[in-house]
Write a structure and sequence with these properties.
About 35% of the residues lie in helices and about 10% in strands. By secondary structure, it is an alpha+beta fold. The longest helix is centred in the first third of the chain and has 16 residues. The N terminus is likely disordered. The structure holds heme C (3 copies). One heme C (HEC) binds next to helix 9 and helix 11.
Length: about 425
């Protein structure tokens, strides 16, 4: 009976809304008593957990794990007073255009270049029902259901960037303007640490100049979804000159260690220089990488162009995105930087067993992890006594002892060939 009523209410709601204006800001009021379509709500919930919960918390209470690192508290979206003070159109505007555009904190990112208008409305529907008085929401007629495409950087755009970077990009005024964008205007610090400030959702940017090539920084921040469709980093809709200035800034500074406890300097230790000066052979490196009987057996854990395991990150374009120095460090000392999304979690079960693996998902029911062998496991919450994220990588830490200098040089040469031609003109 209740279900029938809901269906009826929805039908009425459809009829009333269909005359609203075609653009995204259209009126969205629903008649009293109408319920939000459960599927629409579910869609909003998934998006919220993917893109918002790390700051706003799973239930919109403003208590996501990242909130404590922010200078400004994320809004408490579940607060009925907060909800009462804002129209759906106001919510749409801040989610779509970001905090800075509506005189709120610049730490609230822009999502209108990442999500479709309809998806943003589904987020509003979800947010409205977080507070007990929240009403029903439906996307206005005619809103776009396609996600925005984002810029596609052509070969010539990349060539022009490289030329710019070699000249203009080294100048102080570019570096300063990039710094200003990051520190005060764009939402980078909402998710990334720089010096002692900022969030922990993405990698620490102190190391940008050591880890990433300038071309990659430019290409990635111009359109992250083009390279990693599921990334939690939104497309911030940067103007080309903004993306250039930010790349100049991030490529300009001397890298610092990840946190204070680490006394180790970032950089290449003296005794590693021999790995970089040795001439590697890419085809030998490829064999070492793929040899299932060998000591390295990198392919057991890494996907390259559709082949290999998926315990670790895909390496298909690391020759484009990572510097040689960072690749060397990743192989010899994997604990220095743990790639975003690959933190190891250690679980102690109630029957006193330790289980370690990479956390893929965590929800009310428990943890989904991938263990060293690449096996997916679900650990139900009622079996878990304690858990802890660890600062060590699931990648073996002893390749420095297991592999000859020449073998590592060969591996580096091979990784250097794994490029994206649209961004890297020739392999390194
Ligand atoms: C990096 C952290 C971060 C992420 C991710 C984030 N927000 Fe926010 N959000 C904030 C902060 C900080 C504020 C507070 C802004 C202020 O009050 O100045 C805020 C404010 C808001 C507001 C209230 C604006 C107002 O009118 O006061 C809404 C609505 C909102 N966020 C929705 C979302 C949604 C939806 C998502 C996911 C698509 C999201 N946020 C993702 C940090 C974040
Ligand atoms: C809402 C969170 C969020 C915001 C805002 C954000 N990032 Fe990110 N960023 C991430 C995450 C998460 C990653 C991890 C990479 C992935 O998902 O594949 C990332 C990755 C990166 C990387 C490394 C890419 C790689 O190859 O690993 C760089 C560089 C970067 N971001 C720079 C920036 C800059 C500059 C800004 C501001 C203009 C910014 N980010 C804003 C979340 C964010
Ligand atoms: C048992 C699984 C495993 C094996 C074997 C393994 N890796 Fe990894 N690798 C990982 C994991 C997990 C990560 C992510 C965590 C981290 O950053 O250490 C990683 C990270 C990396 C990264 C950094 C990627 C990035 O973008 O940040 C590189 C490069 C890499 N591995 C190369 C190799 C090479 C080369 C070999 C063979 C000599 C190898 N790996 C063997 C699991 C493995």
């Amino acid at each position: 009976m209740l279900k029938l009523l809901k269906t009826l209410a929805l039908t009425v709601c459809f009829a009333v809304i269909s005359n609203s204006s075609a653009w995204a800001g259209g009126v969205s009021e629903s008649p009293l008593g109408a319920a939000t379509d459960p599927e629409f709500l579910q869609k909003g919930k998934h998006l919220f957990l993917d893109y918002c919960a790390h700051c706003h918390g799973n239930h919109g209470d403003g208590d996501g794990f990242n909130a404590e690192f922010l200078d400004k508290d994320p809004a408490e979206l579940s607060n009925p007073e907060f909800l009462a003070k804002r129209s759906d159109e106001q919510l749409f505007r801040v989610i779509s255009e970001g905090g800075a555009k509506v005189k709120k904190s610049y730490l609230m990112p822009v999502f209108g270049h990442t999500l479709s208008e309809e998806e943003i409305w589904s987020l509003i529907a979800f947010i409205r029902q977080l507070g007990p008085t929240g009403g029903a929401v439906k996307a206005p007629e005619g809103v776009k259901t396609e996600r925005p495409a984002g810029v596609v950087l052509s070969r010539s755009a990349m060539d022009s960037f490289s030329k710019w970077f070699a000249g203009e990009g080294q100048k102080k005024e570019q570096v300063t303007s990039g710094e200003l964008l990051i520190m005060n205007k764009k939402s980078c610090l909402g998710c990334h640490q720089l010096n002692e400030e900022g969030g922990r959702i993405g990698p620490n940017l102190n190391r940008s100049s050591f880890n990433y090539t300038p071309e990659w920084i430019y290409a990635w921040i111009s359109n992250p979804q083009a390279f990693h469709p599921g990334t939690k980093m939104p497309n911030l809709g940067l103007e080309p000159q903004e993306a250039r200035a930010i790349s100049a800034f991030l490529s300009s500074f001397e890298p610092e260690a990840d946190d204070e406890e680490e006394e180790a300097e970032v950089g290449i230790p003296e005794d590693w220089k021999q790995y970089l000066s040795a001439t590697g052979d890419a085809s030998r490196g490829e064999k070492i990488f793929n040899n299932a009987e060998g000591t390295a057996n990198c392919a057991k854990c890494h996907l390259v162009k559709g082949e290999g395991g998926s315990v670790g990150p895909e390496l298909s374009i690391v020759g484009t995105s990572r510097t040689r120095e960072f690749l060397l460090e990743s192989v010899l000392a994997p604990n220095e930087v743990i790639t975003a999304g690959y933190k190891t979690i250690m679980i102690l079960t109630k029957d006193r067993k330790f289980i370690t693996g990479i956390k893929i998902n965590e929800d009310e029911s428990g943890f989904d992890i991938v263990d060293k062998e690449g096996k997916n496991r679900h650990i139900p919450r009622e079996k878990v006594k304690k858990f802890k994220t660890q600062k060590i990588s699931t990648m073996p830490g002893n390749f420095k002892d297991l592999l000859e200098v020449q073998e590592v040089a060969d591996l580096l040469a091979y990784l250097g060939t794994l490029t994206l031609p649209a961004i890297t003109a020739s392999s390194r």
